[in-house]
Amino acid sequence: MMVATFLVFIMHLGFATLEAGLCRSKNTVNILFKNTAIVAIGLLTYAVIGFNLMYPGEFSIPGIFGFSGFGIGVDPENMMVAGKDGVGIYTYWTDFIFQAMFAATAATIVSGAVAERVKLHSFLIFSIIYVGLVYPWVGSWKWGKGWLDAMGFYDFAGSTLVHSVGGWASLAAVMLLGPRLGKYVGNTIKPIMGHSMPLATIGAFLLWLGWFGFNGGSVLSADPALVSFVFVTTCLAAAAGMFGAISLSWMIQKKPDLSMTLNGVLAGLVGITAGADVVSVMSAVVIGFIAGLLVVVSVMIFDRLRLDDPVGALSVHLVCGIWGTLAVGIFSAAHSFTTQLIGVAAYGAVCFPAAFVIFYLLKVTLGIRVDAEDEMKGLDISEHGMEAYAGFEIKNV
Fold first, then answer.
1. 265: Cβ contacts below 8 Å, ≥ 6 apart
2. DSSP structure class, residue 180
3. Among residues 71, 156, 291, 378, which one has the fewest Cβ atoms lying within 10 Å of its Cβ?
4. Which distant-in-sequence residues (6+ apart) come within 8 Å of 56 by Cβ?
């Protein structure tokens, strides 16, 4: 569990570098700052309220504020938990830190969707509220033995509980923020290229690496057979997602697109996350491949709808998160498609309005978008007063 926690922690570096690489250099400092702050926000808000709100009654700790009195007078030896099916043990503290990393991920997803034009302070306030209240509340429906768990809804590691929760919030934010300047001119969709594909590629590989902890740690036991099986389904789905995205994007654009390829990997990973432990190896390949196709199609659809998403967060996390959750009901005989559909609808019905209300209130009070001059100048200078690449100049040769 501790190793899995470290791997999930590394995923935040992956999100930061992927987002920075796919956006323009003038916004790099802002992107790195947001992703760094989100980790701290996730840890602290989850400690203060989120953990107990998400797991009510667990560990016999009363109330929803704080976790185990913040360790005051607690004997660590009495905070041991048997692993799933009684295989191995882990501690209360390990479970907290592992789940806190998941909580921070939900806000990180939103960061990519709103990149290059969101006001920093408004985004941070949103992250505190969403991670501290909304994420743990809806998470308790399944992982806290709530009503969806009682219905038989299944989401192994968070295709819906983490990725779609972040995806629904991203959709609300993008709708309220509007597109970046120059993205849509008349009926023309103008691509805004990222400044560093090497950085984006490093980020994608870090995320792929971290996903072994994301899914493997969600086994919640030291069962080598099940953990290794989850590793295999996770990795094959990622590979199939990449192949699906490459195939379709190459057919459409007549050339291979690296950004689509990277998002294809992530699409496969998000798609398999809900059922990595209950679908067959072949099913994992099919799920990943379809996710890779979906990410390409949905990116084009969102562009036509003028929903500007610089990194493809809506396509990867929302669309493929929904697909992965529904796929459990298709490829696992033990789970119902109808129940999975109810779960997807329930999360959408709460997370989208909740995020929309939070962002709308911020919009009419503090504002959520930087002004046009600051956006053109870049958020590194306007929000932070510094450059990511001071002293360097990029020229076309």
1. 204, 207, 208, 238, 239, 241, 242, 245
2. P
3. 71
4. 64, 140, 144
Q: Helix, strand or coil for residue 10?
A: helix
Q: Is residue 273 within 8 Å of residue 102, measured between CB atoms?
A: no
Q: Where are the beta strands (DSSP E) in the chain?
A: 80-82, 89-91, 184-185, 188-189
pLDDT tens digit string along 33-68? 999 999 999 999 988 888 888 887 655 454 444 454
Residue whose C-alpha is closest to residue 175's, from 267, 308, 42: 308
Using one digit for the tens of pLDDT, what is the confidence trace for 283-313? 999 999 999 999 999 999 999 999 999 999 9
Question: What region does 367 belong to: left with phi over 0, alpha with psi -120 to 50, or beta?
Answer: left
**Do the strands 89-91 and 80-82 form a parallel or antiparallel pair, or are they unpaired?**
antiparallel
Residue 59 backbone zone (phi > 0: left; psi -120 to 50: alpha; other: beta):
left
Q: How many CB atoms are closer than 10 A to CB 54?
A: 25
pLDDT digits (tens, 9 = 90+) for 369-385: 999 999 999 999 999 99
- Write the pLDDT tens digit of every residue in 146-157: 999 999 999 999
Residue written as tokens 């298709």? 330
Rounded to whole angstroms, how far apart are CA atoms 287 and 329?
A: 12
Tokens of 246: 């490459």
Sign of CA dihedral 209, 211, 212, 213: positive
What is the identity of the amino acid at 359?
A: F
Query: Residues near 382 by Cβ (< 8 Å), separated by ≥ 6?
Result: 370, 373, 374, 375
Where do the H-state alpha helices sit in 305-336?
A: 313, 320-331
Q: How far apart are CA 312 and CA 302, in angstroms?
A: 9
Q: What is the pTM of this model?
A: 0.93
**Structural class in CATH, domain 2-384:** mainly alpha
Residue type, 24: R
Tell me the Cα Rg of the chain.
20
Q: Residue written as tokens 């999975």?
A: 340
CB 373: neighbour CB atoms within 10 A?
8
Residue type, 371: D
**Count H helices, E strands: the chain?**
17, 4
Dmax of the chain from CA atoms? 65
